[in-house]
């Protein structure tokens, strides 16, 4: 595969869907197409219109092929999502939006068959955040359609199926809080049998396995070479982690930011994970368990930060530090380390300038990230990637709260990780240490300590 240089990465995030052309030789993204990934389907439940998404993917692939050439395709997507295929390859049921509350309706009955955390490393989460809970609810509510399922595919490999016709799944997707995987035994959990899906989970492959070549009709529609290879693909936070596994010595931790902030500890202190605090065992591309913790940081920013272009002034910083104005957990109480607890500002937020609000939200997100890192037993440097890597105040507070070096990942580890699957790995270089904080480090340390003292008790 040494002749592969330009890899089209299909990157389906919860908020945005992208197709990225990644140049392995230059170690950079050279072109991107994106669209809002909206939940537009309604009946019989909120779902993704996958045919519309696939049209967008094919259009992007055609443009990349025409303008640059495409040597291979890889896929990465958000988790908690599965495609339920009938024998003919069509969907038995629509692809459920995991933020739909339907699975909560059958929560009590699901608990009767759900494997313990000790088996799966998967915490019980709200809504459809456990694929197992989705499947149980769908089986209960739509028994006729559920009975038509011939194969269950994780979301990354569903898009691979659309491109190649091969039905497969791999460990990073099955190991992402699905309740369906046992990370220590590296195989499916007992839940698969309880759901009557034994033998219907697709063949197991590795993330860097070649699924196949694009189908003839895909080659005709896009202009791709008929032998263009498609690789199995990977869950997105594990795509973010993978280049660091290729590039640096342990211990370290990676914080992948976006809709979700996911802290992943590599080579740290083995933690006693607490499933009630949204900690979990992720499974990396090699099948190894990775202690992780998370919260919906990007969603918090959307809800709590002021909109538009806002500048944080020096007066804003002084006022926040002097008056110890803080946002306390949680903004969203159904995920993260403080579930069931709703906090907020320690003062009337109407008295805050837009700059103070932006600063307070940025610091809150950093402090929540530090809690997640503590819960995973993280040690060594902290590498931040994604949108929050460009937020200076977030990085400053994260450094103060953890007492460890904080670095910005060069470019997108997600696209690099997914693209690198085609050639067995790429190394990242030029990690950028975070510069000195705009506020004094001692002042930020004191702020972080007071924030921790004010934390609500967790049962």
From TrEMBL:
Similarity section: Belongs to the FGGY kinase family.
PANTHER family per the UniProt record, alphabetical: SUGAR KINASE, XYLULOSE KINASE
Keyword Transferase: yes
The protein's name in its UniProt record: FGGY-family carbohydrate kinase
One GO biological process term: carbohydrate metabolic process
Domain Carbohydrate kinase FGGY N-terminal: from-to ranges: 9-242
Domain Carbohydrate kinase FGGY C-terminal: 250-422
Listed CDD domains: ASKHA_NBD_FGGY_NaCK-like
Pfam families referenced in this protein's UniProt entry, alphabetically: FGGY_C_2, FGGY_N
InterPro entries: ATPase_NBD, FGGY_C_2, FGGY_Carb_Kinase, FGGY_N
Keywords per UniProt: Kinase, Transferase
Superkingdom, natural source: Bacteria
Source taxonomy: Bacteria, Pseudomonadati, Pseudomonadota, Alphaproteobacteria, Hyphomicrobiales
Entry GO MF terms: kinase activity
Biological source species: Martelella lutilitoris
């Amino acid at each position: 595969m040494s002749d592969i240089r330009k890899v089209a990465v299909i990157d389906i995030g919860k908020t945005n869907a992208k197709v990225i052309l990644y140049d392995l030789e230059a170690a950079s993204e050279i072109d991107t197409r994106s669209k809002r990934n909206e939940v537009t389907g309604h009946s019989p439940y909120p779902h993704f219109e996958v045919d519309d998404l696939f049209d967008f993917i094919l259009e992007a692939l055609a443009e990349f092929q025409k303008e640059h050439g495409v040597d291979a395709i890889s896929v990465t997507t958000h988790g908690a999502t599965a495609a339920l295929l009938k024998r003919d390859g069509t969907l038995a049921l629509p692809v459920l939006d995991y933020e739909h509350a339907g699975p909560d309706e059958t929560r009590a009955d699901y608990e009767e068959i759900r494997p313990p955390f000790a088996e799966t490393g998967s915490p019980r989460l709200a809504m459809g955040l456990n694929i197992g809970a989705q499947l149980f609810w769908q089986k209960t509510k739509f028994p006729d359609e559920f009975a038509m399922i011939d194969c269950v595919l994780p979301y990354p490999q569903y898009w691979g199926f659309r491109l190649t016709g091969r039905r497969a799944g791999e460990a990073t997707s099955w190991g992402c809080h699905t309740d369906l995987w046992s990370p220590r035994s590296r195989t499916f959990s007992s839940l698969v049998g309880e759901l009557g899906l034994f033998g219907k989970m697709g063949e197991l492959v590795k993330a860097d396995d070649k699924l196949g070549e694009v189908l003839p009709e895909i080659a005709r529609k896009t202009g791709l070479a008929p032998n263009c290879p498609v690789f199995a693909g990977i869950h997105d936070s594990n795509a973010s982690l993978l280049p660091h596994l290729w590039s640096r010595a342990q211990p370290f931790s990676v914080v992948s930011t976006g809709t979700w902030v996911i802290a992943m500890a590599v080579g740290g202190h083995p933690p006693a994970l607490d499933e009630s605090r949204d900690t979990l065992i992720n499974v990396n591309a090699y099948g190894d368990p990775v202690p992780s913790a998370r919260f919906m940081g990007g969603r918090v920013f959307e809800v709590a930060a002021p909109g538009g272009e806002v500048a944080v002034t020096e007066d804003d910083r002084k006022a926040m530090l002097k008056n110890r104005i803080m946002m306390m957990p949680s903004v969203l109480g159904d995920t993260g380390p403080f579930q069931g607890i709703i906090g907020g500002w320690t003062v009337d937020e109407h008295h805050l300038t837009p700059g103070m609000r932006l600063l307070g939200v940025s610091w809150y997100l950093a402090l929540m990230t530090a809690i997640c890192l503590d819960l995973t037993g993280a040690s060594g440097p902290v590498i931040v990637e994604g949108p929050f890597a460009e937020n200076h105040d977030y990085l400053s507070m994260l450094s103060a709260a953890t007492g460890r070096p904080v670095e910005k990942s060069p470019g997108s580890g997600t696209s690099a990780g997914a693209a690198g699957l085609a050639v067995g790995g790429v190394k990242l270089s030029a990690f950028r240490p975070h510069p000195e904080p705009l506020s004094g480090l001692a002042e930020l340390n004191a702020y972080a300590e007071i924030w921790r003292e004010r934390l609500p008790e967790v049962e």
